[in-house]
Write a structure and sequence with these properties.
With 81 residues, the chain is an alpha/beta fold. It has 3 helices and 3 strands, in the order βαβαβα. A 3-stranded parallel beta sheet has the order 1-2-3, with helices on one face. Helix 2 links the parallel strand 2 and strand 3. It is globular and about 40 Å long. It starts with 9 loop residues before the first strand and ends with a helix.
Length: 81
């Protein structure tokens, strides 16, 4: 099972939080960059929470794990920006 992650450079994870907590570490351990759309890592201060139009500069640090806000937050912060 672990070997399948070694074939991916980028993983966009849209599963529920309980699944994300299993999948994301496996993909990271295999060397993939992960964009997580669940709420699993949104509150982690070590993981950038990115809306590209607002704070896309956080990607300049080349993070391996990127959290995505929920859809209503993305629209709200984009409009406020």
């Amino acid at each position: 099972e672990e070997a399948r992650w070694h074939h991916h450079d980028l993983v966009i994870q849209c599963a529920p939080t309980s699944v994300a907590r299993i999948i994301v570490p496996r993909a990271l351990d295999a060397g993939a960059i992960v964009v997580d759309a669940s709420s699993a890592y949104r509150d982690d201060p070590a993981v950038p929470l990115v809306v590209p139009e607002v704070n896309g500069h956080l990607l300049d640090a080349d993070p391996r794990l990127i959290a995505s806000p929920n859809c209503s937050t993305i629209l709200l912060v984009t409009a406020l920006h």
